[in-house]
Specification:
Helix content of chain A: 40-55%
Largest interface: A-B, 50 and 50 residues
Number of strands of chain A: 3
Largest sheet of chain A: 3 strands, antiparallel
Strand order of the largest sheet of chain A: 1-3-2
Order of helices and strands of chain A: HHEHHEEH
Low-confidence stretches of chain A: none
Strand content of chain A: 5-15%
Distance between the termini of chain A: 26 Å
Shape of chain A: elongated
Mean pLDDT of chain A: 90
Number of helices of chain A: 5
CATH class of chain A: Mainly Alpha
Radius of gyration of chain A: 18 Å
Oligomer: homodimer
CATH superfamily of chain A: Winged helix-like DNA-binding domain superfamily/Winged helix DNA-binding domain
Chain lengths: 108, 108
DNA sequence: TTTGTTGTTCGCAAAATAACGAACAATTCT
DNA sequence: AGAATTGTTCGTTATTTTGCGAACAACAAA
């Protein structure tokens, strides 16, 4: 009861989900996914929060691996991290897969 | 820049994602999705955390609408909330849909 | 060199999360 | 009535999250 840990997949899925657990970060990801990529300023323009806060949200998304940023003086270009994005999609799809549920409503 | 809010869909998706943002809650959801439903004790048995903490995680999943619990003295039966579960699946699927991205790697 | 532009980082504060043991509530069993 | 079983709730502690303004850093332009 003390050392039962979680599987690596559960940890990874939770990590991605956590990163997506704020409307601002959802908005950022949608924006980036649609634009392929863009600059910090473009993202900030679209959000109702200060640039400091935007920067923090971007950091969290980067730490979670969902996006990546490259300095392009004097700007910073952000893009979706396609590789991890695909991993996330796969994990979520698997999670919501039509389940091994049988007939009845509830177990006896 | 001050009153730009998030869309209802973004808020809902973020709400679901946030609820899924912890490995224990992922484990609970996977367990319930596989079993159709079961008692509190069955869930607690599978997790490496105290019953008080399990109860809290279950509350959060219930508040997010992903599960539902019914008292069945002296036990409590928990099930996936199929309706909201389907909504979540739809929202996540839409989110990860193959994107409106065109040719090039990055915008100019 | 001075000025601008563009983002990040640094405090800081308030709120939310995560976790636990102990106490409590509800119901069944003896 | 008294004991046992099953979860929830309470009180507490530690950590994380969210948010902002102000200060800072890096480079381009004047």
């Amino acid at each position: 009861m003390t050392t039962k840990e979680y599987t690596a997949e559960q940890e990874r899925l939770a990590r991605f989900a956590k990163a997506m657990g704020h409307p601002a970060r959802i908005a950022i990801l949608e924006f980036l996914a649609a634009q392929e990529c863009c600059f910090f300023g473009d993202i900030h323009e679209v959000l109702p929060i200060s640039k400091a806060t935007v920067s923090q949200h971007l950091s969290e998304l980067r730490d979670a691996g969902l996006i990546q940023g490259t300095i392009e003086p004097p700007k910073v270009r952000y893009c979706i991290n396609r590789e991890n994005w695909a991993t996330a999609r796969r994990l979520f799809a698997g999670f919501f897969k039509e389940n091994n549920r049988e007939k009845g409503e509830c177990c006896p």
